[in-house]
Automatic annotation (TrEMBL):
The keyword Metal-binding appears for this protein: yes
DNA/RNA non-specific endonuclease/pyrophosphatase/phosphodiesterase domain: residues covered: 143-378
Family annotation (SUPFAM superfamilies): His-Me finger endonucleases
Name of protein: Double-stranded ribonuclease 3
Active site: 227 (proton acceptor)
Lineage of origin: Eukaryota, Metazoa, Ecdysozoa, Arthropoda, Hexapoda
Signal sequence coordinates: 1-24
Amino acid sequence: MKCVSMVFCFTALLLAISIADVRGECKLSLQDDFKKPAPVYIKDGVFLAPNPAGDIRLRKSETLAVACPGNKRRVVLGNVTTSLDVVEASCVSNTTFRVGQWLGPFKSITCNVQPWFSSQEVKGGCGRGNQLHRVGYQIESVFFSVYEACFDPSLVRTVYVRHELTPASVFFQKGQQRPQFTEGTLFGKVRMSKLYSMKNQKERVQELVGDVADQYITKKEFLSRGHLAARADFSLRACQVATFHYVNTAPQWQRGNAGDWAALEEALKRRISALGRPVTVYTGTHGVMSFGPHKELYLTADANNNGIVPVPLYLYKLVFDPLTRKAVVFVSINSPFYNSTITDQLTFCEDVCERKEYSWLTWRDDGTTSFCCNYNDAKVFHLPKLPVSGLFY
C-alpha cells in the first residue's frame, strides 16, 4: 500500500509539472532569479514588483523590458555582452525566457555595469522658490521616476521627498552592496561627501560649543546621511540604488536614524502590507537643530557666510491614503541631546499615536523624541495641499 501511495504521489507531481509546462507560466524568486549587476525591469509601463506572495509571475509569452540605462551600459545574455541597453524578455516557462534568438534562465540576463540613475527638474517647482526634481532611470525616450524631491536651492536642503509605498515593499532583494551617494548636478560647487565627513562635522559643532565637540561627534554618535525615501521601501535593486542620491538625504543624528526612524520605516511597511494597497509618503525636513540660542547647526556656509545645508530640527513622514483621503504625520525631533523640557516645548500637537489604533507602531528607547499629528495640526511643515478628510491609522 505504501508503494502505491508513493507511485500516486509521483504521478501527481509529474502531472502538476506537465500542467505548468502547458500553461507556460514563469515564476521568479526575488532572491534566486535576479542576479547582479541588476538591470531595471519594466512591465506594463511601470517598475516590476512582486505579488502579495513575494514572487513574480508572468504568463506564457508575456514580456517585460530589461534595461541597463547609462553611458556604456549594455545588456548581458549569459556570457555575451550585447550592443543593446534595453531588450524585451518573453516568458517561456518556469524561469526560462527568450530574448530574440537567445533562450535561457532569467537570472542570466544582467548588465555589464550597474545601471545609472539620474535626476530631472520638473517644471513648475513645488512652491516658495523650490525646485521639483524626479530621480529615476531614462530608458530610451521615457523617464521612469522612483521618487520626486522638492529641493530648496537657497539653503541647499531637501524640503521633502515623495514616493509610493506599496504592499510589496515588505519583500526586499538582499545582497546588494551599499553604493556610494551621488550629488548629480543639483548641488553646484557644494561637495556633500566632504560635508558629511567626521572632520567637517566636528569642526562645525566646535564652532558652536567649543572644545566639548568631542562629546557630540563620536564613533557612535554623528550626523548620518539619513535616507528620506528609505532604501528598503523598494523591492528591486535598481530602485534601491536610486535612493543613494544626496537629494534623498538629510543630516540626521545616528541614534535617531537607527532608533525611532528605523522603527517607523519597518512598522509602516508592515502596516501597508496589511492594508493591501499603496499609499503616498512625503518624507521631509523642517527648521534647524541648535545647541542653544543663536547656535543653529549647518554643515557649511555660502560665500556670504550664511549657513547652508542645515541640520533639520524635525524630520517627518506624511502618509496619505488616496483611496480614503486619510492622512497622518509622524514626527521625530532630530536631536538626542535635548532634555524633556525642550522636547515638550517642541512637541506642538496632540500625539495621536498614543491611541490604540497605532498599536502597530512602537518607538525605540533611543534618546530621541517622536510623536504623531493629524494633517491639519502639522501644517507648520508647509505640507503639500492634499484633500485630507480623516486620520490614517
